[in-house]
Every structure is written in C-alpha cells, then in structure tokens.
Amino acid sequence: MTSDSLSALRSEATYRDTMISAVIHTIHLALIHSHVRSLLTRVATCTHVVTADLGIMLGPGFPVDYSLQLGVRNDSRKWMEHTARRARMYPWEYALGDKAYVGCPEFLTEFKNFGTLSAEQRNWNDTLQFFRGRNEHLVAAVKDGRKALSTTWRGSFAGLAAVLRVVMHMVALEERMLGPRYDCFGPWPVCPNSIVQRYAH
Known about the structure:
Order of helices and strands: HEEEEHHEEHHHHH
Number of domains: 1
CATH class: Alpha Beta
Distance between the termini: 7 Å
Helix content: 40-55%
Structural class: alpha+beta
Number of strands: 6
CATH architecture: 2-Layer Sandwich
Strand content: 15-25%
CATH topology: Nucleotidyltransferase, domain 5
Oligomer: single chain
Radius of gyration: 19 Å
C-alpha cells in the first residue's frame, strides 16, 4: 500500500471520527418489551417486539449510528449477526458495552462479578460504567417527549422506522449544533500512522 493510500485511509478515519470510542449500548426506547401492533397493515391482530440500539462517540457524545431490529434476540447475538454494521468498524476500533456484549470481539466490557473481582477489575468496571453512562444522556434526548418512542406503537414497522430515522437525525443535528456535551480535546487523528500501517494490507 502506498503512502498516499495510507494517508487517505487515515484521513477517512479522522473524518469519520467513528466508533473508536463509541459507546454501543442497547437503548430500550421503551420499545424493548413494548408491543408493536399492526406490523402488517393487513394483519390487525399481529403484535411484535422491536428493539433499538444507539452508538455515540465517547468524547463529544455525538450519535453516530443506530439500528432498529425486530425480535427478542440478546444484544450480543444482534451485534454478531449485524455483519454490515460490524464491517464499518476499522480493525483498530473498539466499542464500550455492558456485560451483554461479553464475547463480542469489537467490544470492551465490564468484568462479570462472581465475588472475586480484584481492585483493578473493580476500577476498570467503574471507569467503563462512567463513560458508558454518557449514552444514557442521548437515550433521554431521543425518548423524552416523544410518545411514538416511549409508548406502544400501533402503526406499521415502516412507520416506526421512519419516525425513529427523523428523530435520530434531528437529535444528531441538535447535538452537533450545540457542541460537545463533555470536555474533549483535539482535533487529533483517530488513529496513529503506526496502527494504520499495522492493519493495512
């Protein structure tokens, strides 16, 4: 790979400012365990469960990704089966997740507590929870004041997906217009050249 190609790759990573420190955490949007009625307009009695998740940049707290999924699969399975989303992450990127994502190769998670955590492991868990909690602020921004996302939905899946798409784009625009929620520094490259070169093929 030429130096120009490496430079372009690094520039793309910097521009995307993607999920190297994104917090991926399932947001329930009050949709999880909520029933979405009339998924098919011709089947008025059909009820389904829909879940959504949200990814944000750890530093400024900007939303960068979300998905709406049908069914009650656990979080780790939803992530592992979402191949298109996983493919968007660079090899050097990691996400922060709760214990539901243990075993997902792209995630840094808490240590499970079976009564034998060391002081270092407890400190790791506290630190991870502190930064992962930033996602909850965005969850509130998405849900609050929007009955479509906090009560039982009685329309089509397409309608719900359209509502969520509009809400997510407006929340993302608002967050970027207001500026970062948290202290952050930079701009710096998302990834140093040495790491880019290690994974460049």
